[in-house]
Amino acid sequence: MRSHRLVLGALGLLSPLPLLAQATLEEAASRARELWLKHDVAGLVTGSDTVRLQLPGVPYLSALAPGQAARMLDRYLESSREIGLDLQGVRETGPNQGYAEGHRRYAVQGTSEEREEVVYLEFRLSGGKWGLREVRIVP
Questions:
Q1: Do the domain assignments include residue 13?
Q2: 71 falls within a domain
Q3: Residue 20: which residues within 8 A CB-CB, separation 6 or more?
Q4: Fewest 10 Å CB contacts: which of 13, 64, 70, 71?
């Protein structure tokens, strides 16, 4: 019985952590980057109460439920292949909030043409955990 718990505990260490489990803003931003590169939008919004979206070609969307935000982000990302997302800066902007700025490089599926845009991710600290509050993409 004890060996089963040890194995399960070790497997738990290998499983991906949700975004909100990160202790610092830098860790949350790094984890968000990993999730973005995998197009794991559900993981990106896990633990958020609401998420605001500002996507190219889409009217500004405020206060979406995490599931709605994940669907919108998934639609936006589904036709692209990620090349890279480099974090340019991570800053706290208040006592319980901060943001990360990323430089995204991607190609539209079926093409090799590289495109670029800036991704801003806003986070809020609540209950000792960082959660995503806003995604803003600037072409």
A1: no
A2: yes
A3: 28, 46, 47, 48, 129, 130, 131
A4: 13
- Structural domain total, the chain: 1
Identify the CA nearest to 44 among candidates 134, 139, 138, 109: 134
pLDDT tens column, 4-48: 333 333 333 333 445 655 689 999 999 999 999 999 999 999 989
Q: Which amino acid is at 23?
A: A
**If you ran DSSP here, which 8-state letter would residue 15 be given?**
S
CATH of the domain at 67: 3.10.450.50
Q: What is the SS3 assignment for 23?
A: coil
DSSP line for 39-102: T-HHHHHTT-S-EEEE-TTS--EEEE-HHHHHHHHHHHHTTEEEEEEEEEEEEEEETTEEEEEE
| Residue 47 domain-assigned (yes or no) | yes
Residue 58 contacts residue 71 (beta carbons within 8 Å)? no
Please name which of 89, 88, 80 lies closest in space to residue 115, comparing C-alpha atoms. 80
Query: Which tokens belong to 66?
Result: 């995490």
Tell me the C-alpha distance between 5 and 12, whole Å.
10
According to DSSP, residue 21 is labeled G
